[in-house]
Write a structure and sequence with these properties.
heterodimer, A: alpha+beta, Alpha-Beta Plaits, 5 helices, 46% helix, elongated, B: mainly alpha, 17 helices, 72% helix
C-alpha cells in the first residue's frame, strides 16, 4: 500500500443511534473526529459533532443579491439607457414591470450559487474526488474517520474507545488527501 | 414524555387575573376616550361640503353617490374592525384545522392558543350582523335601491348587472350561512378537543382529522366569497379576481402573528414553558413566509392592473395613489407588511429568539390593520377619509374586547393538550 498520505482510523457503525452515542463518547474522551460519513442524513448529528452553523445561507444571500443587481442592471441598461422604448404607455424606467424578472434572477442565482457552493465545499465538484474512507458508507454503513496526526491519544486507545462505543469494525486507512 | 415536562413549575391553566382585566379595562377606556375625541374632531371639521352645497343650492348627491356625513367615518371604521378581527379569529381556527389535516406534530403543544382566538368568532359574527344592520347603506353603496330602478336618474347600469349576486337577501343569507357553518365546525373541533382531554386515545384525533378536512375545503370556497362580499363589494364597480386570496393572506398572516405573539407572552409569564426555540422558529417562519405571500398576492394584483392600464381597473389604485390622504398609507402598508418583516425576520436568529418576534408580530398586526383600512376606507369615504384619534380609539376598543374574549377563552381548556397523540413530537421538536 502507498505510504504517502495521512493515517486514519476508521470505525464502521451499523445503526445511527449507536453512531450518535458513539460520537458523544468518543469526543468526551478527548478524541478529535475528522468526519463522519453516513448513507442518509442523520438528525442532530451536527450538534453532536460540535459543528458550527453552516455559512451556506450567507452565500445564498450574496448570490441572491448579485442576481438582483444583475437583473436590474440588465433591464435598466437595455430598456432605459441603451434603447428607451415606450411600451404600454409606461415610463422608460417602469420599476413595477422589472420586479418579476428581478425576483426570478434573484431566486435563480441564489439557488444555483447555493448548490454550486455546496458541491464545491463538500468535494462533489467535477474536478475533485469525494473522500471515501469506506465504500460501504454509500450503502448501509456509517463511517467515522479519525485522523491520527490530529490526535494526542494513541491509536490503540482510539481503537479501544471505538470498539467500546459500538463500532462493528475498526480499520486502519491511509488516505492521500 | 409529558410527565417529565409536567414536574417543573409550568402552569397548566391560564389565570385570567384581575390585574390583566384591569389593564384591558384601561385599554378599553383609553379607546373610548380617543374615539370620543376623534368623533368630536370629525364632527367639527367634516361638514364643509354640505354648507357649500347648501349655499350654492346644489345637491351633490345627484350623481348617485351619498352625501358625506361625519358618522360615515365612524361606520367605515366599525366595519374595518369587524372584518379585521373576525378574519383573525376564523384564520386561527383554520390554523388549527390545517394542523390536523396535515397531521402535524410540531404544533400539537400550542394549538390551545389558536383555539382560544377562535372564541371571538361568535361575538364577532353577532357584531358583524349588528354593524351591517346599522351601516349597510353608508358602507355598501350597492344596497341603495334606487341604483336598480331604471326610472331613477341615479340608476346604475353596471351595478344593476350584478343584481343577481349583489342583493340584500342573498348577501345576508351568505353571511349568516358562512358564519353559521364556520361556527358549527368550530364547536365540533372544540367538542372533540375536550373529549380528547377527557378520554385520551386516538379516536378524537381521527375525528378531528375528518372534521378539519371538510372545514378546510369549505373554508377555501367560502372565505373567498366572504372577501368579495365584505370587502370587495364596497368598491362595487371594480372587481379583482385576486381579491379573495388577498384578503385571505392578510387575515392569515395577522392570525399567525397574533398566535406567535400570544405564545411568546404566555411563555414569558410561566405558561407553555415547553415551547422551545424550534417551535418559535417554525412560527416565525410562518409569519415571515406569509408576509412574503401577502406581498406576492398584493403585487400580482397591482402589476396586472398597472400593466394592462384599463381605466375601470386602475381606478382602485388611482383612488389610493393619487390621494394625499391615502398615499402615505399605501407606502406604510408596503413597509410594515413587506419590507420590515422580510428584512427583520430574514435571519435564523431573529426567528428563534423572542425579542425579535416580540417586535415583528405587533408591527405585522398593525400593518394588516392598515391594509384593511386601505381596502375599505377609500371606497366608503372617498376624499373625506383620514386617520386620527377615531381610527386609533376604535381599534383599541375592539382590541380590548377581542383580547378579553380570547383570554377568557384560554381559561376554558388546559393550555396543554396532554392527550394529543403527537404531543411528544412538539415537546422534542428540533430543527
Amino acid at each position: 500500500m502507498d505510504d504517502k498520505g495521512k493515517k486514519f482510523i476508521v470505525g464502521i457503525f451499523e445503526d445511527e443511534d449507536i453512531l450518535l452515542d458513539a460520537i458523544t463518547s468518543v469526543r468526551d474522551k478527548g478524541v478529535n473526529i475528522y468526519e463522519v460519513y453516513s448513507p442518509f442524513p442523520v438528525h442532530g448529528i451536527e450538534n453532536r459533532l460540535g459543528y458550527k452553523r453552516s455559512r451556506l445561507s450567507i452565500a445564498a444571500f450574496c448570490f441572491g443579491f448579485l442576481g438582483t443587481c444583475l437583473a436590474l442592471t440588465m433591464m435598466i441598461g437595455m430598456m432605459t439607457i441603451d434603447w428607451p422604448m415606450i411600451i404600454g404607455g409606461k415610463d422608460f424606467l417602469p420599476l413595477p414591470v422589472f420586479i418579476p424578472v428581478t425576483f426570478e434572477m434573484t431566486v435563480l442565482l441564489s439557488a444555483f450559487g447555493m448548490v454550486g457552493t455546496f458541491l464545491v465545499v463538500s468535494d462533489l465538484k467535477p474536478w475533485g474526488t469525494p473522500k471515501t474512507f469506506d465504500l460501504r458508507s454509500t450503502n448501509d454503513k456509517h463511517v467515522m474517520a479519525i485522523e491520527l496526526d490530529n490526535n494526542k491519544v494513541d491509536s490503540k486507545k482510539i481503537k479501544t474507545i471505538l470498539n467500546n462505543s459500538g463500532a462493528s469494525e475498526v480499520n486502519d486507512k491511509i488516505m492521500d488527501l | 414524555m409529558y410527565k417529565h415536562f409536567k414536574n417543573n413549575s409550568m402552569k397548566e391553566i391560564f389565570d385570567f387575573n384581575s390585574n390583566i382585566k384591569k389593564n384591558l379595562f384601561y385599554l378599553f377606556i383609553g379607546g373610548v376616550i380617543l374615539t370620543i375625541i376623534g368623533l368630536y374632531q370629525v364632527i367639527n371639521s367634516g361638514n364643509g361640503h354640505e354648507e357649500v352645497s347648501q349655499a350654492l343650492g346644489i345637491n351633490i348627491s345627484s350623481d348617485g353617490h351619498s352625501e358625506y356625513h361625519w358618522y360615515h367615518r365612524l361606520y367605515s371604521n366599525l366595519w374595518i374592525n369587524v372584518v379585521y378581527f373576525l378574519g383573525i379569529s376564523i384564520s386561527a381556527i383554520f390554523f388549527v384545522a390545517i394542523q390536523y389535516v396535515s397531521q402535524a406534530g410540531w404544533s400539537s403543544g400550542i394549538l390551545r392558543v389558536p383555539l382560544a382566538i377562535g372564541r371571538w368568532l361568535l361575538p364577532g359574527s353577532v357584531l358583524m350582523l349588528v354593524v351591517f344592520a346599522i351601516t349597510n347603506h353608508d358602507v355598501f353603496h350597492w344596497t341603495h335601491e334606487y341604483l336598480y330602478d331604471k326610472s331613477d336618474p341615479r340608476y346604475d347600469y353596471i351595478i344593476d348587472g350584478k343584481k343577481a349576486y349583489l342583493n340584500l337577501p342573498f348577501f345576508l343569507g351568505r353571511m349568516v350561512f358562512f358564519l353559521g357553518v364556520w361556527y358549527l365546525f368550530y364547536t365540533l373541533i372544540l367538542k372533540y378537543v375536550a373529549k380528547e382531554d377527557k378520554l385520551g386515545g386516538t379516536e378524537s384525533w381521527q375525528k378531528l382529522f375528518t372534521i378539519s378536512t371538510v372545514f378546510v375545503v369549505f373554508y377555501a370556497f367560502t372565505q373567498s366569497v366572504a372577501a368579495w362580499d365584505w370587502v370587495l363589494s364596497i368598491d362595487t364597480h371594480w372587481f379583482s379576481t385576486m381579491f379573495g386570496w388577498y384578503v385571505f393572506a392578510s387575515w392569515w398572516v395577522s392570525a399567525l402573528a397574533l398566535i406567535t405573539y400570544i405564545i411568546i407572552i404566555l411563555r414569558d409569564n410561566g405558561y407553555l414553558t415547553f415551547v422551545n426555540h424550534s417551535v418559535l422558529h417554525d412560527l416565525g417562519k410562518y409569519v415571515f413566509a406569509f408576509s412574503v405571500f401577502w406581498t406576492y398576492i398584493w403585487f400580482s394584483q397591482f402589476l396586472l392592473i398597472y400593466y394592462a392600464n384599463i381605466p375601470e381597473e386602475t381606478i382602485y389604485f388611482v383612488e389610493r395613489l393619487e390621494s394625499d390622504i391615502y398615499f402615505p398609507f399605501f407606502i406604510v402598508n408596503l413597509i410594515l407588511n413587506f419590507f420590515f418583516p422580510f428584512l427583520f425576520l430574514m435571519t435564523r436568529a431573529s426567528k428563534r429568539f423572542t425579542r425579535f418576534l416580540k417586535i415583528a408580530c405587533p408591527v405585522v398586526l398593525f400593518g394588516h390593520f392598515i391594509d384593511f383600512y386601505l381596502m375599505i376606507t377609500p371606497g366608503v369615504l372617498k376624499s373625506n377619509g383620514g386617520f386620527g384619534f377615531l381610527e386609533i380609539g376604535l381599534l383599541l376598543v375592539f382590541l380590548s374586547a377581542f383580547l378579553f374574549v380570547i383570554l377568557h377563552g384560554l381559561t376554558k381548556l388546559p393550555l396543554v393538550a396532554k392527550n394529543h397523540p403527537m404531543l411528544d413530537e412538539s415537546l422534542h421538536h428540533d430543527i
